[in-house]
Amino acid sequence: MSTTRLTTAQALVKFLGAQYVEFDGNQERFVKGIFTIFGHGNVLGLGQALEEDTGGMEVFQGRNEQGMANAAIAFAKQKHRKQIMACTSSVGPGSANMITSAATATANNIPVLLLPGDVFATRQPDPVLQQIEHTHNLSISTNDSFRAVSKYWDRISRPEQLMSAMLNAMRVLTNVAETGAVTIALPQDVQAEAWDFPQSFFEKRIHRIERRLPSPESVQDAVKLIQLKKKPLLIFGGGVRYSEAADELVKFAETFHIPFGETQAGKSGVESTHPMNLGGIGVTGNSAANTIAKEADLIIGVGTRFTDFTTASKQMFGHADILTINVSEFHASKLDAVKVVADVKVGLEAIGSALGDYRSAYENEIEDAKQGWQDEMKRLYGITYGDDFTPEITDHFEDKLLEYKEVLGTELTQTGVLGVFNEMVDDNAIVVGAAGSLPGDLQRMWLSKKRNTYHMEYGYSCMGYEIAGALGAKIAEPDREVYAMTGDGSYLMLHTELVTSLQEGKKINVVLFDNSGFGCINNLQMANGMGSFGTEFRRKNPETGKMNGPVMTIDFARVAEGYGVKTYSVRTMEELRVAVIDSKKQSVSTLIDIKVLPKTMTHGYDSWWHVGVAEVSEKESIQTAFESKETNLEKARAY
Ligand SMILES: Cc1ncc(C[n+]2csc(CCOP(=O)(O)OP(=O)(O)O)c2C)c(N)n1
Ligand SMILES: O=C1C[C@@H](O)[C@H](O)[C@@H](O)C1=O
Ligand SMILES: [Mg+2]
Known about the structure:
Cofactor: Mg(2+); thiamine diphosphate
Domain Thiamine pyrophosphate enzyme N-terminal TPP-binding: 31-132
Organism: Jeotgalibacillus marinus
Number of domains: 4
CATH topology of the largest domain: Rossmann fold
CATH class of the largest domain: Alpha Beta
Strand content: 15-25%
Radius of gyration: 25 Å
Strand order of the largest sheet: 5-4-6-7-9-8
Family: Belongs to the TPP enzyme family.
Number of helices: 25
Number of strands: 23
Shape: globular
CATH architecture of the largest domain: 3-Layer(aba) Sandwich
Bound molecules: thiamine diphosphate, the ligand O=C1C[C@@H](O)[C@H](O)[C@@H](O)C1=O, magnesium ion
Pathway: Polyol metabolism; myo-inositol degradation into acetyl-CoA; acetyl-CoA from myo-inositol: step 3/7
């Protein structure tokens, strides 16, 4: 057996450089690059290996381990999971910072390879700097926390373990039904330890992403069910995008005259303008999709995980039968569905060819629902502040709006800004988002004029993904404008990969909607009987000890200017227009700091979200909210 003597870290890098995927006959290198933040836990092992030979991987330097890993997730998501990034961190806090990202990747079924440094396998120097000592179990380190949020987890305590660990890592990363975060913990001493690795370990490996075929029986079940129904509705999720199945979905919808609604992960799989596309569905859905969903007698879930936001906590289509087409048996089995476990493209093809001359019984309902939503969109775009102004989110704190208008110096409404912005960005530009009120507004209102232009992380809805995610999307699509759509809360939580974008010369545009608060959570608490508590950004009042002092303002544009970002302060529509036009001319990253009035985002359209309302309270409004929750729960499916 021919062998090569390398350190564990050198062998790992060499192995990663030899991994390829093949999908529909196209081959691509699997690991595009590696994000690094070096510390004592990885610099002399993996750092040394990369300095010597990167194995063809591009090396990036992150600013925060969560940020860099979020960028890695966004890269893989934008690449439809056909190419990934690895991330290496030091031991302890560096690795702990990646745990949130591991969870984000796993919740969204997006592959990412995390390589945190670990404490010494020999234990000789224990406790090494940043080691937690568990008196009941010395084998536990910070990295054991990744077990709960990874699809595959391993620790390399001896160099030769690398081989089985990495083959399994690749198995999971390239498995469309099981992918997510893969964590390979690398003890500092083992990274640098040498071993005679068999040459075969480094040979080029092609991981074929196969399209799983449905069983003929399951196709027959699906056909029988559809034929019994008059008003089916397709709901498509991220699976349609990852399987490159959009054309097949459109063909199916057109042939059988079945409309479709889109989830956050699915949106922009098909253009918003398609006559059968009702747009966003569920809690953050619009009136067109939600109205049709309520009337549907069959829901066909195509590549969707059916989260609570999609099903409106299982109330939206409480009485319809459910059919699923999903490559994951787990997701296909949800809602007690009739299931076709298959790649969604071949699943749709198989059902489509067996469905004969079926046609739904829809007459004008689809056009009417779409028209109703278009009229509503026009209204939302046109909302302006003025005398007797009533915000979209009403009965919360109209009396405070004047204060916000004066402190933020703005009369802009969030829906109005989105309307203008949507019209102005290039058709092929990518919008990236994750948390706050914007995902709701975007899923409802954003018109995706081209495919794969909407990039929303709403499986974990992780604040701080937006800017890092924009960087990842930009690395995946360097020739397109990428916009990070973020609230002030998300921006403050994590935005420092903006600096990485400057370092890399990868221009991103941050579109910051500053309403000085955790706006959507303020809406949520007040809609459920609470007061405004801990969600507005107000100074602490020293007399009361409460956060009910003056509204805070931050000049985000000025701060980002200090980084070297081209910035714009926007308080009027005219300033917005100038900023969007000028930002397109820039080659560096830009930030548009838009002050918007709170409560001017969209509200829900005929949907319910199950949240934990207090069963006991002195407050009548809470009691009412609790009763309303109980009533709604009765209308929802139990499982
Ligand atoms: C990491 C993380 N922490 C907490 C939350 C809960 N959360 C969701 S939205 C939100 C506030 C978002 O505020 P902002 O970004 O300003 O958006 P807005 O709702 O004001 O538009 C919070 C705290 C979350 N989604 N992610
Ligand atoms: O708790 C939440 C409420 C949602 O409105 C928001 O979009 C999401 O980020 C979240 O975490
Ligand atoms: Mg906010």
